[in-house]
Amino acid sequence: MMTLTSERVLSIQSHVVFGYVGGKAAVFPLQLLGYDVDVVNTVNYSNHAGYGRSGGTKTTAAELDSIFQAMELNELLLPTRLLTGYIPGAEALSAVAKLASKLRRSRPSMTYLLDPVMGDAGRLYVAPDVVPVYKDMLPLATIITPNWFEVELLTDVTLKDIPSLHRALDILHKQYRVPNVVISSIPLNGWLAAALPSSILPPSATASTHLLCISSSLPSSALQSSHLYASDTTRSIVHAQCVPLIPGYFSGVGDLFSALLLAHFHQDQTPENVAASPLSEAVSQALTKTHAVLLVTQAQAEALPEEERLPTDDELDKEYPLRKTRRMRGRELALVKGQDVIRGRGHAHVREMMLWDGFWDTR
């Protein structure tokens, strides 16, 4: 048997030839941070959907099963960490779920970050039958990184106030047994801003100027309890941080964030900051680096010729498709230019996730 000498990630998500979304946004950062990465592509496209036109194919469930079976026969399924992202259909997702379950049984200590990529801003961009499969997969995960809309899909709770946010997190932690939940890029709606402690909410922050990131993790003592999910008294530790909004359209941001979060998460390490948790510490690193890469990307885009910086105009974009293509092309994540940022060089200030003291008492 092969002996593991370092951490190895199995990444199962989309692939594009041009640009940085899915695996193209995740694999390079993981490698920069010292991880060997095995890559399975759930789709093979020319470019992401934001360009308006693309070519390529989806990987079928049978093709995924064939890959997984051959890897197992050759003793090549050796991940210490699993990362899953965009998987557009229920059959293919079920094949991935079957593999994740098998890996979880054989490697109980494996860290599994499940990014339930289903949609955004009230719009699904996968088949609806994917949703129940994701719900069945949640108990396998160590960390999940849904956006606002995906939390609503997974919990059947409309997030409209603090009590509904409490209900959603309780469902994810107690019903689905997810130890660590991260919700990033949350619009800073009025009710949410009103509930935030002053230590987290910047002066004059609004939904148009800032986004909110929330992390919720069960304490290590609770994770070791066999009665955890029968107890209504068990509460997660919640951290949050506001991030200045960078105007413009970017793709692959969630994929980059999830990869950085997985890379920096170490459940068994005790943070130096007594108010931090292993999850909040990892989110702080991922949030800081993702924001810094976006700033590099924004600067790169602003330096492009004017014809590649034209504003969105649906009518003109439809009449002249290359107008949109050039705009999208100029806003691809600047991962290569930002590789020192990813390695942690050149930025001293870490955007720390702050303890939301009294979160569960807020009404």
TrEMBL record:
GO BP field: pyridoxal 5'-phosphate salvage
Organism: Agrocybe pediades
CDD domains reported for this sequence: pyridoxal_pyridoxamine_kinase
Gene3D superfamilies from the UniProt entry: 3.40.1190.20
Protein name (database record): pyridoxal kinase
Upper taxonomic lineage: Eukaryota, Fungi, Dikarya, Basidiomycota, Agaricomycotina
A GO cellular component annotation in the UniProt record: cytosol
Domain Pyridoxamine kinase/Phosphomethylpyrimidine kinase: 84-184
EC number: 2.7.1.35
Family membership: Belongs to the pyridoxine kinase family.
Gene Ontology molecular-function annotations: ATP binding; pyridoxal kinase activity
